Amino acid sequence: MKLVSSGKDTYLYTNNKTVDPSKPSVVFIHGAGFDHSVWTLFARHFSRHDWNVIALDLPGHGRSEGPVLESIEQMASWTIELIDTLGLNNVALVGHSMGSLITLEASSRLGDRVTHTVLIGSISPMPVSEPILDATANKPGAAHSMLTSFGFSKQNLMGGNPNPGMWMVSESMRRYEDEAQSALDSDMRACNAYQRGLEAASEITAPTLMLHGDADRLTPLRATKPLQDALSNTRMDIIPGAGHSLMVEDPNHVLDQLKIHLL
User: Fold this and answer.
1) Quick one: fold of 2-262?
2) Among residues 37, 44, 85, 258, which is most buried (max CB within 10 A)?
């Protein structure tokens, strides 16, 4: 569905359903250079269980009007305004990578309105290396290759997609190629600049699930401890053999954990 939020046309994947504020709601927030489509499998499941599902396209991504937002704080403010526009008083927030930072910031501000949080492939701070920042600014093709290569575990780069007939590496490349170069570059710089994650985490009281691959090379598992320690009510689930792209590397495990945490 499309609506106007913050004065701009905004696209939300809702599984072709109208949002009903009386039902439980989950908002899915995508990572850098991606869009709502990474959440389709999970959104459909919760929609079938009579939840409102809102898989959003951030400004300047997917089908949402730009310009892109330049900081995690701005993206969180935009997300909160969207939640208010939809009339939702109680929501679960699920974010991957950059989306997890938006989830942290938005959840800390929304307080008791957040029923649950899920952080997938999340660390805080979330530094981005200079070679990647240079590539996103000046060499988009190289940036797509680098992020795809490091976005999967080494074993999953070789194939073995759990979804028959699909190759997850090619799918990731195509998603990056479909987005504007400026969106990916801005997103990466926003992740690199955001320093309030641990403070935001300390303000969150909702139960939090952290999902992480033990072979994640973009946000390494060893770097998750500060965030785990900052959260007061958290559970960590580690997916063996998975990298940073958990929703395609092991979608069934991710869905099972979302069901345990939210349903």
Assistant:
1) Rossmann fold (3.40.50)
2) 258
